Amino acid sequence: MAIRNMATINFNGSKRTVGILKRQHDHPRINTFAEIYPMLDAINTEHGIKVKLIPPDLAEHITTVDAGSLSDVLWTASPFPVNLVIAYEIPGKPFYNEVVFKHGYYSRLDGAFVRMILSVPSDYRGETNLALVIKGFSVADFKWDGRDCVIVIPENEVGDRVLAIKEFPPLDGRYLPDPEHPKIVIPRGNVVAVGTPGTRFLEREKMIEGYGSFPGDPGSYVGAVFRSVGYDTDGLVICGLVHRISDRVGILIEVPPEDIKKLEQVKLD
Fold first, then answer.
1. Which in 89, 195, 215, 231 has the greatest CB count within 10 A?
2. Within 13 Å of residue 137, how many CA atoms lie on the same side as its CB?
3. pTM to 2 decimals?
4. Cβ(255)–Cβ(53) below 8 Å
5. What are the sequence ranges of the domains in the chain?
6. What's the mean pLDDT in 103-118?
7. Rounded CA separation 133/222 (Å)
8. What is the pLDDT of residue 99?
9. Paired sense of beta strands 98-103 and 221-231, if any
């Protein structure tokens, strides 16, 4: 792999650099958080760098304020994961002990289905129409048990790291972000009209054949939060929250200032 298309922007009074971690043609596709985080850790360890996924507030900035100057990067890398994991249930179904998402496009186990599972914190069991968002995610937060990838956030960390998005929308559509958590920009509430200022488009995960009673209906999901840019029906550029990663070239990442020169001198194989 290699990091290309690096660009530096001003964000909250400081300079931040982003780039695309490009996938070589012979490298396996990277589809889930369970592949992304170990891969970044391995690259950082091998090359003595600290590249990371885009934090949500920076993702919001580059898909709105700097969308024009970064258009080549964004159009190439969208949708891209941000450093958040989200879990939600089928609309109307309460949280029980676990949220289970059956993932059908995963390369680690020869393309077979695996299950991404969140162990639901006790405070949220029995709640409906919520999305749980995990901040500061890392490889320490999940483990493999056969074909199950299980996320467990210690109860003493839940208050600081798990955010509850109320009135999480049951359907795809245009929504305003949750005003209680403005930095993570997750849709909430009722659908709004095309052209409404501040709109974010939500694309929920769908049930799949052999797993849901009605394939194509809104399903459950456990996985990374992805951001994207695109054109609305009135021709305006919008940014969205989607469930899928770009399968074209690679992943948008943030590069610390001290690593820029290092990356100009090394090749990430």
1. 89
2. 32
3. 0.87
4. no
5. 2-265
6. 66
7. 10
8. 95
9. unpaired
